[in-house]
Write a structure and sequence with these properties.
Elements: E1 2-4, E2 17-19, E3 22-24, H1 30-41, E4 47-49, H2 57-60, H3 65-81, H4 111-118, H5 130-149, E5 154-157, H6 179-191, E6 195-199, H7 206-212, E7 218-225, E8 250-255, H8 261-278, E9 282-287, H9 304-315, E10 321-325, H10 331-346
Parallel strand pairs: 1-4, 1-5, 5-10, 6-7, 6-9, 7-8, 9-10
Antiparallel strand pairs: 2-3
Length: about 350
């Protein structure tokens, strides 16, 4: 299998994140991707490629162009206009209801206010190299996708930062640009084919769902921790099925705490049934391994064997498949778990 990787991700290197009313070492850090890279580079069945550069047009086709414009200079603007800071995090979040019955507000001009305009939470600090890393992740996703468009059956994009929490207008949840959404839109808009994004990350991909919620050419199917207890808390409920033309093109399967391999595979079977009914020409997998039994920000109980079985079940769909990395925070096991999932897919 071809693996697309760039060391541009090393530029996004936060040393702390703010979560659960405290500051601590980040769960999402450079060693995640490097652990995956080391394991897969030692695997003779994996062939590494660098991504090609795709520019900003594919990003702006999915995201508000203002988001890219903001991220281009956000860190430097903050250093100049607010104060020197290694990590840049909002201390205010704009919510439209704050101006209820008032005129619509345009994007602020000050660096601090713009942070709260484009970000929705506190765990995603911007560092000096974050924008370059985010662009590299999109290039990785698009290059992996092009490999499959060109005839490969499978490919894997080692995307970091991850992407599935980024919405049309907002970054957050460790995500700046929505890598899978950019890739899915590229395929649907350039080929006219239907595409499915299958999201198996523990955390619901609120951004991917929001981007495609009203569309009938891109299906979003997700199995994830029940949002009544799991981040991002406000999306991913079973009754969210799309709207308008997109009605029925969204499927959410919330999972109970302690979901084990067999329970997860049962849910994946239901996901695959929904995909088969939709009839896509290509599958993009948002691969989160944070469903693992010892992941520090998960309460499920999936094992490495469960990942192998999951990859094999997805292979059974017999679709050209692009796998893009999302979460997974048990550093000791992450690379081995990715390897197991990909071997299941290829076997």
């Amino acid at each position: 299998m071809k693996v697309v990787y760039t060391d541009a991700h090393l530029g996004h290197n936060p040393q702390e994140e703010i979560a659960e009313s405290g500051s601590h070492s980040p769960h999402e850090h450079t060693a995640r991707a490097e652990n995956i890279r080391e394991v897969l580079q030692a695997d003779n069945s994996m062939r590494f490629l660098a991504p090609t550069e795709w520019g900003v047009d594919p990003i702006n086709a999915v995201h508000n162009p203002g988001l890219n414009n903001f991220l281009t200079s956000a860190w430097a603007d903050y250093q100049r206009d607010v104060r020197p800071s290694r990590e840049v995090v909002p201390d205010f979040f704009y919510r439209p209801s704050m101006r209820e019955a008032m005129s619509q507000l345009e994007e602020p001009t000050t660096a601090n206010a713009r942070l709260g305009w484009w970000c929705f939470e506190t765990t995603t600090p911007i560092t000096q190299g974050s924008y370059t890393a985010a662009r590299g992740a999109v290039d990785t996703a698009l290059t992996a996708t092009q490999l499959v468009l060109d005839g490969d059956k499978f490919s894997y994009g080692l995307c970091r930062p991850p992407g599935h929490h980024a919405t049309t207008d907002l970054y957050g949840g460790y995500c700046f640009f929505n890598n899978a959404a950019v890739a899915a839109h590229f395929v649907a808009s350039t080929t006219g084919a239907k595409v499915t994004v299958l999201d198996v990350d523990y955390h619901h991909g609120n951004g991917t769902q929001q981007i495609f919620y009203g569309r009938d050419d891109v299906q979003y199917v997700s199995l994830h921790g029940d949002p009544q207890r799991a981040y991002p808390y406000i999306t991913g409920f079973a009754d969210e099925m799309g709207e308008g033309r997109g009605r029925g093109a969204t499927t959410n399967i919330p999972l109970a705490a302690k979901t084990d391999d067999d329970m997860f595979l049962d849910a994946l079977d239901k996901s695959c049934e929904a995909i088969e009914a939709f009839g896509p020409s290509m599958l993009l997998v948002s691969l989160g391994l944070d469903t693992y039994v010892t992941d520090p920000i998960c309460d499920l109980a999936v094992t490495r064997d469960g990942f192998t079985r999951s990859g094999a079940r997805v292979r059974g769909l017999n679709l050209p498949t692009v796998v893009l990395q999302e979460g997974g925070y048990d550093l000791e096991n992450l690379g081995l778990n990715v390897q197991a999932w990909l071997h299941g897919l290829e076997s």
